[in-house]
């Protein structure tokens, strides 16, 4: 049996990192991926995928010359029931918005 | 039970966006991801993932100084049977080719 | 039933491409994705996903002006039992390190 953890798509500009927390419904291996797009912003950003307050993986976007650039990464994780996963903007800001950003997770393999 | 929607890998330079349409074999949650690589092309491209003629997510590649750059994104989607998914080049062109581009989708969770 | 092929996360700087080989435990369709991050390195890198010594997909990172940039791609593959999958640095080097790189694979659909 496969459980879907959550589906989250950000079409508009209203993505709230802090409010977007996955909570694992059961023990298992989960797949997570994210693409955080910075818009009209020359700063370097660092986005961390957090697991219960600890950073697991990071992604970067630091190009000076493009209007939109994604900080992307993905990972498989062994989670316990009620473990929490969320994105944290570790460096930089998203003043220009982050339209088109996505954050997805699903259960691959229950344990 | 898990259904694989389709497997599509573009090793060569013969990827045809319009001809590459996923059609959902059944209702469920599907995972889609794409990496569209532009080659020797200074234009900014925007690639949309289309769901029955509606754009769901977008990705961008706009760097002026690199010979190959990918516009990447991914998403989980709730599809009905026979829903159609495909990539659309919303902006720019792929005159230099898009060798190494990939587009993948599979059923995560039947409903 | 779903089998997880392997979980591999590189938090530190000790990722060894050559030693990180997935071997398929059974016949089926597998999903693979990788994000290889080059750090403080102006060279263009090309990373290949290898399937039993043959390149399947490639990814590139070639920006001159950023301190960290990822070469990312992903694919669904039909594997036979004991097929081997690994990453190969086809071009460039990773002298500055590749902290934050990830390589993930799991069985989507047994055959």
TrEMBL record, chains A, B, C:
- Provide the GO biological process annotations: maintenance of synapse structure
Major subcellular site = secreted
Subcellular location, record wording: Secreted
Keywords of the record: Secreted, Signal
Keyword Chaperone: yes or no? no
Task: Please give an example of a GO cellular component term from this record.
Answer: synapse
Q: Which InterPro entries match?
A: C1q_dom, Cerebellin_Synaptic_Org, Tumour_necrosis_fac-like_dom
Question: What sequence ranges are listed for the domain C1q?
Answer: 1-111
Tell me the superkingdom of the source.
Eukaryota
- Asked if the Swiss-Prot or TrEMBL record annotates the protein with the keyword Secreted, the reply is yes
Q: Which protein are we looking at?
A: C1q domain-containing protein
């Amino acid at each position: 049996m496969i459980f879907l953890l959550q589906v989250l798509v950000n079409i508009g500009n209203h993505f709230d990192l802090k409010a977007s927390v996955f909570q694992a419904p059961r023990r298992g291996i989960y797949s997570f991926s994210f693409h955080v797009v910075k818009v009209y912003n020359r700063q370097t950003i660092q986005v961390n995928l957090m697991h219960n307050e600890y950073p697991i993986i990071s992604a970067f976007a630091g190009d000076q010359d493009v209007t939109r650039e994604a900080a992307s990464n993905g990972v498989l994780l062994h989670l316990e029931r009620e473990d929490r996963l969320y994105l944290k903007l570790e460096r930089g800001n998203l003043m220009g918005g982050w339209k088109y950003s996505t954050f997805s997770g699903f259960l691959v393999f229950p344990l």
